[in-house]
Amino acid sequence: MEKIELHKEKVDAAARADDVASMIFNEKDDVAFLQFLANDYGEMLKDISPQKYSFFQRDKERDIAIISLILGTGLRVSEVASLYYI
């Protein structure tokens, strides 16, 4: 059986850092994303499915608060899920 040669592309640290930087939310992206959820996302759902739109409207305030908590504090989803109200 012959070995298959793999040609792994070598990427330097600066190029990797640029790739990662393009995927990270910064503060402007956070605000724009939350504004999209608050204003435009519901309109998109209205065109797709009336039932999804009604569920979104029902849970909108809660969902935006949870997403704001995650983005604002850096908590992981599992950490937020383990929070409970006393």
Write structural notes for this entry:
The chain is elongated, with a radius of gyration of 20 Å. The longest helix is centred in the C-terminal third of the chain and has 24 residues, at 50-73. 72% of the residues lie in helices and 0% in strands. Helix 2 (27-48) packs antiparallel against helix 3. It has a domain at 26-81. The protein has helices at 13-23, 27-48, 50-73, 77-81. By secondary structure, it is an all-alpha fold. It has four helices and no strands.
Q: How would you characterize the largest beta sheet?
A: none
Mean pLDDT: 89
Order of helices and strands: HHHH
Estimated structural class = mainly alpha
Q: Write down how many β-strands occur, each being a DSSP E stretch of 2 or more residues.
A: 0
Strand residue content: under 5%
Number of helical runs? 4
Q: Outline, from the CA principal axes?
A: elongated
Distance between the termini: 64 Å
Low-confidence residue ranges: none
